[in-house]
Design brief:
Blueprint: E1 11-12, H1 21-24, H2 36-47, E2 55-63, E3 70-77, H3 79-90, E4 95-103, E5 107-108, E6 115-116, E7 118-127, E8 131-140, H4 146-160, E9 174-177, H5 196-200, E10 224-226, H6 233-249, H7 251-260, H8 272-296, H9 301-310, H10 322-341
Parallel strand pairs: 1-4
Antiparallel strand pairs: 2-3, 2-10, 3-9, 4-7, 5-6, 7-8
């Protein structure tokens, strides 16, 4: 079901259903072996900004009562720019992507109190010889373009884990005049470091930057409405690292840990300190899962089933919290120790 550089979607209504990624994996895929020097060279090329000609601008905030209308805009690139870069560096056979689709239950949306579901799309992007990264995009289900938007967001976030397009997270936005359709009347000029030529010459952002060389001042009395235009690069990378833990932990443990923070996905955890704690908990869970696998392989199936039953755990892959995982691992390892002693 997965084609090279193609799309494979798995529709899911039950967000707690078991991970079926193995069913969607290609039976045979190209492999590539790169030296450490070649890997560094590829990563450096992935980090180079897109050509300014493919950059577009999105309005993220608007002034409430300003005349003329003004908005804060940030740059972005269409996902075709991402695929073009990957094709140019690795050829269409050198990478692949796979999509999984989830829908949440209906719930009340905060801004308008409407009862609606959300569409979540997870993209697994693999560059043969470099590795794989996954990320999730989301959109409200009542948006007629929800699938397209969530898919593009997931793909671009996965690419950013390789460095592709990551420079765009350094922008905080610039205020410009908008036309009657709320589009920028004039596009700002990008900083030198946000162009291929400037980046290759060694220019780099030193901190958060606006999109333009000189940010237009916001008129006095204007207040923004909407959400901030971007997150810090380090924060986005943290979200990316947490999302990658899903494949390592499995759906039940991954979702269970997020539920403990009252979140469905990492970027719903507001505080960056809490996100770091979540990543640490997931890393601890990964270590526990390795111990669990090693211990269970040393015991018979009947012995493992007996231990699961004693702890009231239905299946070994349904463990969804650290405390249960810890108890199970200790019980298994204790059984192994007692068997060895006898």
């Amino acid at each position: 079901m997965t084609a090279i550089n193609g799309h494979a979607r798995e529709a899911r209504n039950d967000v707690a259903s078991s991970d079926a990624s193995s069913l969607l994996a290609p039976s045979s895929v190209p492999t590539a072996q790169f030296t450490q020097s070649e890997v560094k060279s590829f990563v450096a090329e992935l980090e180079v900004p897109f050509d300014p000609g493919v950059i577009e601008w999105r309005v993220t905030n608007t002034s409430k009562n300003g005349r003329p209308a003004r908005g804060q805009i940030i740059p972005y690139a269409d996902q075709r720019a991402y695929t073009d870069r990957l094709n140019a560096l690795f050829t269409p056979q050198g990478w692949t992507r796979k999509y999984s689709v989830y829908t949440s239950p209906n719930f009340e949306r905060g801004r308008d109190k409407k009862i609606v579901a959300k569409v979540f799309v997870t993209c697994d992007c693999t560059i043969f010889g470099l590795g794989s990264h996954s990320a999730t995009g989301e959109e409200w289900a009542d948006d007629e373009n929800s699938m397209t938007s969530a898919e593009a967001q997931a793909f671009k976030r996965a690419c950013s884990c390789f460095g592709l397009g990551r420079y765009l997270y350094n922008f905080t936005g610039v205020w410009v005049d908008l036309d009657e359709r709320n589009r920028p009347k004039k596009s700002p000029k990008l900083f030198g470091w946000a162009t291929p030529e400037g980046w290759r010459s060694g220019m780099r952002p030193t901190n958060q930057h606006s999109a333009a060389e000189a940010e237009e001042p916001r008129p006095k009395g204007d207040t923004p409405s909407g959400k901030p235009g971007s997150a810090r690069q380090s924060d986005d990378q943290l979200v990316c690292e947490i999302e990658q833990m899903q494949d390592k932990l499995g759906t039940h443990m991954y979702r269970g840990l997020l539920r403990s923070a009252k979140a469905w996905k990492p970027n719903q955890i507001r505080e960056i300190a809490e996100r770091r704690k979540m990543l640490e908990r997931m890393q601890a869970a990964e270590r526990g899962m390795r111990r669990l696998k090693a211990a269970s392989e040393k015991l018979s199936e009947s012995a493992v089933r007996g231990i699961l039953k004693s702890l009231k755990i239905p299946f070994i892959d349904r463990v969804a919290d650290l405390e249960t995982l810890h108890s199970l691992v200790l019980k298994l390892e204790a059984t192994i120790s007692s068997s060895s002693a006898s």
